[in-house]
Amino acid sequence: MGDTELEISPAQLEELQKSPSASSTSTTSSLSLPSSPSSGPRPSSSPSTSEGLPTSSPPLDVISEGVGEPILVIDTEVAKKACQEVLQKVKFLKADGEVSSASSEPVLVNGTSHPESTNGRKPPKISEEEAEPLKNVRCRQKNNSSKQSLLLRLFESKLFDISMAISYLYNSKEPGVQAYIGNRLFSFRNEDVDFYLPQLLNMYIHMDEDVGDAIKPYVVHRCRQSISFSLQCAWLLGAYSSDMHISTQRHSRGTKLRKLILSDELKPSSQRIRREMPQPPPSCPPPLHHCQGMSGHSLSPSKRTHQRSKSDATLSISLSSNLKRTASNPKVEACQDEDLSSSSDSLELEAGTPVRLTPQREFIKSLMGIGKRLATLPTKEQKTQRLISELSLLNHKLPARVWLSTAAFDHHVVRVPHTQAVVLNSKDKAPYLIYVEVLECENFETSSVPVRIPETRIRSTRSVENLPDCGITPDQRASSFSTVPNYDNDDEAWSVDDIGELQVEFPEIHTNSCDNISQFSVDSITSQESKEPIFIAAGDIRRRLSEQLAHTPTTFKRDPEDPSAVALKEPWEEKVRRIREGSPYGHLPYWRLLSVIVKCGDDLRQELLAYQVLKQLQIIWEQERVPLWIKPYKILVISSDSGMIEPVVNAVSIHQVKKQSQLSLLDYFRQEHGDFNTEEFLTAQRNFVQSCAGYCLICYLLQVKDRHNGNILLDSEGHIIHIDFGFILSSSPRNLGFETSAFKLTSEFVDVMGGLDGDMFNYYKMLMLQGLIAARKHMEKVIQIVEIMHQGSQLPCFHGSSTIRNLKERFHMNLTEEQLQVLVEQMVDGSMRSITTKLYDGFQYLTNGIM
Length: 851
Fold this sequence. Notes:
Elements: H1 10-18, H2 20-29, E1 49-50, E2 53-54, H3 76-99, E3 107-109, E4 112-114, H4 128-155, H5 162-171, H6 175-184, H7 190-195, H8 197-206, H9 209-225, H10 227-241, H11 246-250, H12 253-262, H13 271-276, H14 330-333, H15 344-352, H16 358-374, H17 380-395, E5 411-415, E6 422-423, E7 432-440, H18 456-459, H19 474-483, H20 490-493, H21 519-529, H22 538-550, H23 564-569, H24 572-581, E8 591-600, H25 605-623, E9 635-639, E10 642-645, E11 651-653, H26 654-661, H27 665-673, H28 679-702, E12 712-715, E13 720-722, H29 747-753, H30 759-777, H31 779-790, H32 803-809, H33 817-832, H34 835-848
Antiparallel strand pairs: 1-2, 3-4, 5-7, 6-7, 7-8, 8-10, 9-10, 11-12, 12-13
Helix pairs in contact: 1-2, 3-4, 5-6, 6-9, 8-9, 8-10, 9-10, 10-12, 16-17, 25-31, 27-28, 28-30, 30-33
Pfam family, one: PI4KB-PIK1_PIK
EC number: 2.7.1.67
Domain PIK helical: 60-263
């Protein structure tokens, strides 16, 4: 306060302690207060004492100087502030007494000391030497209180996002902070939290109990809401727990939570309970009183304050009557004709039957089993034939309440075009690519599963004249959709008892069918049946002819050693149209085509880590408006040695390009996109430069190895896409560290950019510099993704103790932008001249035939 000064000398403090009766006078006499603007006398009473004990205290709005002295009346607010200043000064004495183990402080009322708490003993005298460390203690207390206040303000601000929440959850040692963050997870969007799900579950498995207790309520709540989330958690918990010793793994928290999820105890409540307690909006976070550790400005630890109430069960959805469509339990099938939603007994049966997760688990298990059986066959031809046969059997179990987790929309799988599946290139294993027909729906957990349309009705004709309708009129198709019995019941869809009675179709590779008829034939038939004349302007004809003469896109030939080349080269739009025309479900309006790569025997946890880093860098570059292009593809980890990958459509490997076309990369570009000066070529060249710069930075920051031409794709628009991140950070093929360059930049890449003196090559280097500057501005967001997964991990990419430190150093936070430019020039020059890159490409050609 500007008008009030409070100075207490050591002599006055000693006098204050000795004489209770004088303390009031000595303290108040040192106050210099302005006179109150209010006039008119007020009654006042001076404090009277009896045997040293006060009988009354003066009110806060009146301070008297003495019995025989004139009364000074001041404003109430000024008096309160003055008393607060006095109390602040006297609190210093209390801190002194606590640290020096002295007797308890005198009770202070309105600045007056009372000796009743001292029992007649005089408090010890504090020397100046002892007072110095006590001041430091008080400063630290004030700083801690200030930090806690600022931390709470940060947590409640709009700037606090999921990335910051994960960072504080990992780095904070305060259980109160961890509990608060655990509750704040409910306020973020599900999609934002799902991105960090590997980090959350890895912390739950490998970090201390307080972190696990903070995370578990959110995971349990989401598992009650979603079957997909439940399975994803169960798979990740199993995969990340596999690094633990077997004896520890059995009794770990991760294993217990995984068993809880798979036991289906976290099922949603019935509709009867949900009617009684309405569901709050998902965007509304739970009240903060669940976590008392963060109340006010205090961060006191409290383990149990953040536990979610049992009413969380009411926040999840109910499968209601649709459960009968996916039941693997005969009891549920027996109730098919009953209305489950109208009977309380049926609801109890529904809640007690562990069938929520069964169909999807069995579907994934079937796909993984196919991959394991393929790996035992010696040749690609045999693997392809076996794959087609196995998928043909799988089709007899579809449609069902199953889905592909790599898709971005809700759907039901209705059919797998088995003749379109291909085995991918792999020396020891048998990854395979399948195309999956799905019907988009509102909610795959509650929407009705479509009835089955028999495949035989499509196969009844192979006549070329009837291919557009495949022998079925629109009326027949409509009637067959409504009359065919439903095969989605798990007893019919997922049992193998009836497989022996089915005739498995072994397709001939060269046989024309609705699934593998060439698009050219279909287009020709469609044009012949067209009755209406088509008028085309002469200018359009000249333009189309000139474009066709300028470049003719290549078509790959069938290669028994590489059956995937033809399938991957076919444009996606043509593939979708061709498969839809041959599908019994193709006439439905919500029909979609998806694709997925199934891998067995490979640990995809590193692939998932690389996907997260690529996705984070993609977001950073978009925020900073740096026109770098990368294509992160989704990864689904099933276990520590199996999973599924989202394929990159309209893309083939550079190895396949060179093998099929027998051209250099630049000549292939000209053949695909036209001559140098055409707009299409210049657009493809720009796409190539932007993607090459982006992936060069990715390869440098993550130290991606095994960069042969089989692991670099080229899409139809000119972008390059790096795949297979099995060797990143501290790992390399056979741990030899043979590839020493910062990234792969061959002379062929430079030729496509226009040569060393071309403008596009300078543009490439400028993009590299801009991308690195933008990435280091947000370095912590990238580092925390990797650092959290390092916890308790035995992955090869984390071998050694310096993995995280080396990653941080590659961001070069200590360099200026001018120094970064020099660094980029050196890396580009060194990568172009790298002899190890050329030797490694030669080694791959000699050993694996990769060009």
